[in-house]
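User: Hey, my collaborator sent me this sequence without any context and asked if I could get a structure. I don't really work with proteins. Can you help?
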Amino acid sequence: MRWSGQALDASRSDALPGLESNSGFVRSVTTPEFAGVTFHEVLAKSALNRVPAADGSGTYGWTINPYRGCSHACVYCFARPTHTYLEFDGGADFDQQIVVKTNVADVLHRELTKPTWDRHPVALGTNTDPYQRAEGKYRLMPGVIRALADSGTPFSILTKGTLLRRDIPLLVEAARSVPVDLAMSIAVYDDELQQQVEPGTPTTAARLATVRAIRDAGLDCSVFLMPVLPYITDTRAHLDDAIGRAAAAGATSVMYSALHLRPGVKPWWFEWLGRTRPDLVQRYRSMYLDNTYAPKDYRRWLAERVRPILRAHGLGLGRVDPATGSMGFSNRAGDRPTAVQLDDGTEQSTPATSPLKRADPGYDRRLTPRRPEDAVPTLF
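Assistant: No problem. I've predicted the 3D structure and written it out in structure-token form, which is a compact way to encode the shape of the chain:
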């Protein structure tokens, strides 16, 4: 969303940098129940975002982001640099200055009812989380879900937020008319570490309970074990505990990848690492100082560690759309998984069918075979 394209003219001399003369700005709000967080309410001109595939294939996907910035405050969040577009910083401002598109459901409804809309699958939660704490105040998602379902548009939701449980009945209703895929992002299974690296998120136990609630309602739910933190959460014990607990909660598949650090994220990550794990700073510098992604040798090592653990717990490895980061590959009742031969000679288990794949004939064109250690989807 570009501020200059908003529908309402407003000017505020007391607004934060980047917001003073933007035409979509409505007001800034602070409330006691969200101490330290400021909500900047705006009127969005558009809700749907067209996203090109990262693999250079020329294909694209569609996403919706009701919020910009995220109070989950995950130290590693790849989306932090996007906040600098608004003249905020990617650190504390990203965590505490939350932009709210208050009219997103109404705008989305208008976009989806245009004759030109082809009901292409839409992904939510692949940039900032649609079920972060702000959703408890603004309740934007019910309108978004209804607009998508009423228009016959398939959609997926990836979240760390247990607020999704509020909307399970609505999601069940939506799934009767359109394909719906859900995934819970749960990266850390050590409670103390989780509060250090993701201080604004619900607990791991609460997120696993949400997976179980989704499954009990008859919907599929994948678990995104992302990111795996080198030398911190990549031990066999931690991975076995994580995948085992995901399986026990009813997860239909698991997707994982090693930490990746974009240039605008590195300062915040290394600041945290220096405070909490100074013994690892040099190792991380050797891995990431000149790279965004973990070295291929590390990713290959991680794949060799994860694969037998997945097999032991009876879980398949999911895949994602390289454009949107959405999953769309969870097993459905009656589906028979198939094995895909990878270029390193191993096999990756994938379902025979997928709701988003069935809904979108172009889905296969956006998925390129890749080794699991090379998979780095776009995630918050």
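In plain terms: The mean pLDDT is 81. You can pass these tokens on to your collaborator as they are.
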